[in-house]
Design goal:
By secondary structure, the chain is mainly β. The chain has 3 domains: 16-50; 58-164, Immunoglobulin-like (Sandwich); 195-597, Porin, CATH 2.40.160. The protein contains 4 helices and 35 strands. The chain has helices at residues 4-49, 140-145, 416-419, 481-486; strands at residues 58-66, 76-80, 86-91, 97-103, 106-113, 120-127, 130-132, 135-137, 162-164, 183-185, 196-205, 212-221, 227-235, 243-252, 257-273, 276-292, 296-309, 315-330, 333-340, 362-365, 368-371, 373-384, 388-400, 403-409, 426-428, 433-437, 441-453, 459-471, 489-503, 510-517, 537-548, 555-563, 571-574, 580-583, 589-597.
């Protein structure tokens, strides 16, 4: 029989075993809790440090070097959208490196600039996540030689051999691509860069001297000594010689600026005037761009013009038309003074590679050929940021020989179409359009515009202008052509315009549409010397890529442009012989075709 002491020891042992078991269970539970808490903490840290799905910010980084592989300290690197607007601007560090972060995914261009170097540009970069873009800066001499040096080291990162053949502040001589400047690309040492060239076949109707099929070819090269050379020939098949051509030359002067010359001719054998037939035009424009430090830019030059009507008693007109432009930059603000004597040609798409961009408009005054010209002075202020811009300027004009244009409708058997060339006008039988010189007048006014970048690469621009324009009043009865032309007189007027442009995602379609309202009866432009002004009434322009080369160097695209789509602003007049003339500031016209760039 157990004693009391033995019973007490057994109870103590049982309690100890139970306590041990409870300790083991608590330890297991504690380890599980710690494991759960640790996993929860890791998950919280991971979720807290990672961005939301689909919102990963993109970044661009890289290295800027010269052709010998030496990193460039303090080089400016810009990130550009497809429309060349600046997204961000940074400078390279002591190792020549740069980084731009917190970007929205999309397609961009990266541009590097440095003192005494030509800018380097890499276009159409798909930025999604973190990517590396290395750029090489080259001097004028290196570009002339066509042979950039190899980067140092066999294991170094690949360079992007791409340069723009112009200074950062200068306009290119030829703008083939709306999306950016000219770029010459080399695949490496010993390989000649691809030659920039373009072939275009178009059909157009409703344009003075331009109706029918036309073929054009243009080529750009840099032969030697930092010179750029551009040649273009434009001709109409099935005619007896209708042709336009131009030759452009440019000498880069490094940081000082550049010297440029452009020669353009137009031969239109079907144009009639003063009993003669065949209008020949020629112009030579020479100008110099100068940089006075980082804040002041100037462009000064002149255009020598000659026009000639062929025939037994040829009529000839000549003019020397100077111009000057001075700009002072202070951050996003620019103050500007401009002097001009030749009105800008409102050519298709504002393409400076067309010969008509460099030729003034001509008409007839009585039996003499006349050149539209004058004197324009303006003082303006502009503020341009990445997302928006605003500009205001005040101007004073005096215009000689303002051109009035009309479309003729002739009944079958009517002799007016044949004799219009003797009526003191230039007449184009192919388009049934005529031009005459109106009375000289003076004007003062103001121009203002506001523009804003919308989502993607789309833009909107709203503009206002006031000044004088020629007005043709309504006449109650049929009149001779001379009396109709004599009825024109200047009148104070205002215009309002809105312009939209952009690129469609996916298809790459580049489009622009504009509408400019002006008072009824006005047959010339308000503020005719204005730059970047919208064309009258409703206009639509499309460029659709059909095939693009893999390296982006060229491709095939379709073009379509319609001006004055709704045929607005016409002033009808019945002549004494029953003919109908429709005067307008801008006639409805259509242009369509194909362009191949390589």
């Amino acid at each position: 029989m157990p004693t009391e002491l033995e019973n007490s020891g057994a109870c103590t042992a049982n309690v100890s075993v139970k306590i041990a078991r409870d300790a083991v269970g608590f330890s297991d539970l504690l380890m599980k809790r710690v494991t759960h808490l640790t996993g929860l903490a890791v998950l919280v840290v991971f979720l807290g440090g990672a961005p939301a799905f689909g919102a990963t910010p993109a970044s661009v980084s890289g290295l800027v070097r010269d052709s010998a592989g030496v990193p460039q300290i303090g080089a400016e690197v810009q990130l550009l959208r497809s429309d060349q607007s600046v997204v961000a601007s940074v400078y390279t560090d002591s190792a020549g490196r740069f980084a731009i972060s917190s970007l929205a995914p999309g397609r961009y261009a990266v541009k590097a600039m440095g003192p005494y170097f030509l800018p380097s540009l890499r276009e159409n970069i798909k930025v999604q996540g973190a990517i590396v873009v290395n750029l090489t800066l080259n001097t004028l001499y290196e570009v002339i030689q066509w042979l950039p040096a190899r980067p140092r080291g066999g294991d170094s990162q690949k360079d992007d051999w791409a340069w723009t053949l112009r200074s950062a502040a200068n306009r290119p001589l030829l703008r083939w691509l709306q999306d950016g400047p000219l770029v010459v690309v080399s695949d490496g040492p010993g390989v000649r860069p691809k030659l920039k060239a373009r072939l275009m076949a178009t059909g157009q109707a409703g344009t003075f001297g331009e109706s029918g099929e036309r073929f054009s070819t243009a080529v750009e090269d840099t032969p030697a000594d930092s010179r750029e050379l551009l040649a273009r020939v434009d001709f109409a098949p099935g005619t007896n010689g209708n042709m336009e051509s131009m030759l452009g030359f440019r000498q880069d002067l490094g940081m000082a600026g550049s010297v440029q010359s452009v020669a353009a001719i137009s031969v239109a054998p079907d144009i009639e005037g003063a009993g003669d037939q065949g209008l020949d035009e020629a112009a030579v424009r020479s100008f110099e761009t100068m940089h006075f430090g980082p804040a002041i830019d100037a462009e000064v030059g002149s255009t020598a013009v000659i026009g000639r009507l062929g025939g037994n008693s040829p009529s000839t007109a000549t003019a020397m038309l100077p111009f000057a432009d001075v700009e002072w930059h202070n951050g996003a603000n620019t103050l500007r003074y401009r002097l001009a004597t030749m009105t800008p040609s409102r050519i298709s798409g504002d393409d400076e590679s067309e010969a008509t961009a460099w030729l003034p408009v001509m008409a007839m005054r009585g039996d003499a050929l006349a050149i539209e010209h004058g004197i324009h002075q303006e003082i303006g202020w502009e503020r341009q940021t990445d997302a928006s811009g605003v500009a205001v300027l005040f101007y004073s004009d005096h215009i000689d020989n303002p051109v009035i244009e009309a479309l003729g409708h002739f009944a079958e058997g009517n002799t007016s179409e044949v004799s219009l060339g003797d009526e003191g006008v230039l007449f184009d039988p192919a388009s049934d359009m005529l031009r005459a010189a109106g009375p000289a007048f003076s004007s003062t006014g103001v121009q203002a515009s506001v523009e804003h970048r919308l989502s993607g690469s789309n833009h909107i621009r709203v503009a206002y202008a006031s000044g004088a324009a020629l007005l043709m009043p309504n006449l109650a009865k049929a009149n001779p052509l001379a009396d109709v032309l004599a009825s024109s007189h200047p009148r104070r007027a205002q215009t309002y315009s809105i312009s939209l442009s952009g690129t469609l995602d996916g298809t790459g379609t580049r489009w622009s549409a504009s509408y400019r309202w002006q008072p009824d009866g006005t047959v010339t432009e308000v503020a005719p010397f204005a730059e970047n002004a919208a064309l009258p009434f409703l206009n639509v322009r499309l460029r659709q890529p059909i095939h693009i080369a893999r390296d982006g160097s060229g491709g095939l695209e379709a073009l379509l442009e319609v001006r004055n789509l709704l045929a607005q602003g016409y002033q009808p007049y019945i002549l004494s012989d029953g003919s109908l003339l429709l005067f307008a500031d801008d006639q409805r016209s259509l242009r369509a075709g194909l362009a191949f760039t390589f």
